[in-house]
Structure prediction request, 167 residues.
Amino acid sequence: MRGVSIHQQQQLRQHHHHHQNHQKQQNHQNQQQQQQQQQQQQQQQQEQRLLVDEFKSMRGQQQQQQQRGVTLSCINTAEKNSAAAAAAAAAAAAVAAAAAGGGAGTGAGAGVGEREKQQEGQLLQQKQHQQQQQQQQQQQQQQQQQQEQQQQQQQQQQKHTHTHTHG
Prediction:
């Protein structure tokens, strides 16, 4: 510090002191933001729980109706239930995210995020619905194959009886 003039030393000290204060302020702001984020997350979790419960009861009623209407017992109901539960959870998460985003009033940026989340939830439901349809189609194809095999067997029997009568 010998080569540095007194004026420069004062400037350095002031600058250092100012820098410390600035950091303290930033730390304080960060803490406040973290607390706010935690509160928002807690709200979202509570809302999600409520919505999941609602969805479960709604889905339960729908499934009972579906099961009454479904005549094909070969559709695995356990797989159907798990797919429906996953779809309900995804939809509930999307709705909760939208509700929390709207409640916090975070503006247009959040609006875009909400729409994306809702679309994701809808896509998940669509995918799972497609999977169910594919399973049903596969089962139908298997049934058709069985029918074809039976027809072939009948044809073989007919040929056999035909040659037998000639003999």
